[in-house]
C-alpha cells in the first residue's frame, strides 16, 4: 500500500503542470490591429488617423497605444503620441499642439486626429497596441498619408456678392448706353428726312438742269435780285413809254 501511495504521489504533482501547459495557449490570444492603408487630405484639413484593435482581454492599466511617424523621404520612425491610462500628446516637434486623442480602448478604438495638416506631414503613420497578456499576433498597422495643396473653391455666397455688386450694375449701365445710342440714331434719321421748302441740297440745281427742267429753283438771293430787277425794268419802261397826246400838250 505504501508503494502504491508512493507511485500516485508524483502523479498528483505532475498533473496540474500538464494541464496548465495544454490550457495556456487558450488563455493567450493574438491581438489584431487594423487601419486604412492610405489616406488623402488637403492642406489645412483635420485628418483622422483611424486605428481599431481586437483583443480577448479587457483593457487594463497595462495597455499601451503608440503612434509613430516616418517621413515620406525615408528614415527611422519616430514615436510622437503615447497612451497609457491617459493620452500623452506631443509637446514639441512637428506635431506639437496638433494631435487630439479620438480613441476609446473599451470600444477597441485607438484613433487620433491631426489638426491643420501640411505638405510636411506626408509619410507613413504606424499604430501599435499592447494589451497584456495578448501580445502575440500583429499589434501594428500602417497608414500612408498624402496631403495635397488645397484647391481654392468658390462658395455660393461669393458668387452672389459678385453678381449683385459687379455684374448686375454693369449690365444695367450697358443697357442704358445702348438705349441712348439707339434713340440718338433715330433722331438723326428723322432730322435728315425732314427738309424746309427753301432748302436746296448741294448739286440739286445741276440735277434739275440735267433732267431737262428749264426752271431754276428759287433761292433767297434770287428772290432779292428779282425784286431789284423788276423795279429797274419798271422805271426804265416808264421813261421810254411815250405819253399820250393830251398829256404831252398839257405839259407845254
What is the CATH superfamily label of the domain at 26-148? Immunoglobulins
What name is given to the CATH topology of the domain at 26-148?
Immunoglobulin-like
The first-level CATH class of the domain at 26-148 is given as: Mainly Beta
Strand content: 15-25%
- Multimeric organization: single chain
Helix content: 25-40%
Termini separation comes to 217 Å
* CATH architecture assignment name of the domain at 26-148: Sandwich
**Number of beta-strand segments:** 12
Helices, by number, come to 5
Shape summary: rod-shaped
What does the radius of gyration come to?
57 Å
Structural class estimated from helices and strands: alpha+beta
What is the succession of H and E elements? HEEEEEEEEEEEEHHHH
**What's the arrangement of strands in the largest beta sheet?**
2-12-10-5-6-7
Mean pLDDT across all residues, rounded? 75
Poorly predicted residue ranges: 1-12, 14-26, 246-252
Describe, in plain words, how this protein is organized in 3D.
The structure is a single chain. The chain is of the alpha+beta class and about 250 residues long. Among the domains are: about 25-150, Sandwich (Immunoglobulin-like), CATH 2.60.40.10; about 155-190. Helix content is about 40%, strand content about 20%. The chain contains five helices and twelve strands. A six-stranded mixed sheet has the order 2-12-10-5-6-7, with no helix packed on it. The chain has a three-stranded mixed sheet with strand order 4-1-11, with no helix packed on it. Strands 3-9-8 form a three-stranded antiparallel sheet, with no helix packed on it. It is rod-shaped and about 110 Å long. The N and C termini lie far apart (about 215 Å). The relative contact order is 0.12. Keywords: Disulfide bond, Glycoprotein, Immunoglobulin domain, Membrane, Signal, Transmembrane, Transmembrane helix. This is Myelin protein zero like 3. Pfam families: V-set.
Amino acid at each position: 500500500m505504501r508503494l502504491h501511495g508512493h507511485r500516485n504521489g508524483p502523479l498528483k504533482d505532475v498533473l496540474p503542470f500538464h494541464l496548465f501547459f495544454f490550457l495556456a495557449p487558450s488563455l493567450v490570444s493574438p491581438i489584431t490591429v487594423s487601419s486604412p492603408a492610405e489616406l488623402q487630405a488637403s492642406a489645412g484639413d483635420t485628418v483622422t488617423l483611424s486605428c481599431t484593435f481586437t483583443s480577448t482581454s479587457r483593457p487594463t492599466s497595462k495597455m499601451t497605444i503608440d503612434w509613430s511617424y516616418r517621413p515620406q523621404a525615408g528614415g527611422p520612425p519616430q514615436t510622437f503620441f503615447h497612451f497609457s491610462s491617459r493620452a500623452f500628446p506631443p509637446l514639441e516637434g512637428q506635431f506639437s499642439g496638433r494631435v487630439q486623442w479620438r480613441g476609446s480602448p473599451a470600444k477597441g478604438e485607438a484613433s487620433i486626429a491631426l489638426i491643420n495638416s501640411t505638405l510636411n506631414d506626408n509619410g507613413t503613420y504606424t499604430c501599435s497596441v499592447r494589451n497584456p497578456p495578448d501580445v502575440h499576433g500583429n499589434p501594428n498597422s500602417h497608414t500612408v498619408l498624402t496631403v495635397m495643396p488645397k484647391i481654392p473653391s468658390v462658395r455660393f455666397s461669393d458668387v452672389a456678392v459678385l453678381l449683385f455688386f459687379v455684374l448686375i450694375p454693369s449690365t444695367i449701365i450697358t443697357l442704358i448706353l445702348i438705349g441712348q445710342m439707339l434713340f440718338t440714331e433715330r433722331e438723326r434719321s428723322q432730322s435728315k428726312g425732314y427738309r424746309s421748302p427753301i432748302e436746296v441740297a448741294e448739286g440739286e440745281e445741276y440735277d434739275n438742269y440735267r433732267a431737262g427742267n428749264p426752271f431754276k429753283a428759287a433761292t433767297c438771293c434770287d428772290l432779292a435780285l428779282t425784286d431789284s430787277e423788276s423795279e429797274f425794268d419798271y422805271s426804265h419802261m416808264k421813261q421810254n413809254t411815250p405819253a399820250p397826246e393830251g398829256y404831252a400838250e398839257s405839259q407845254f
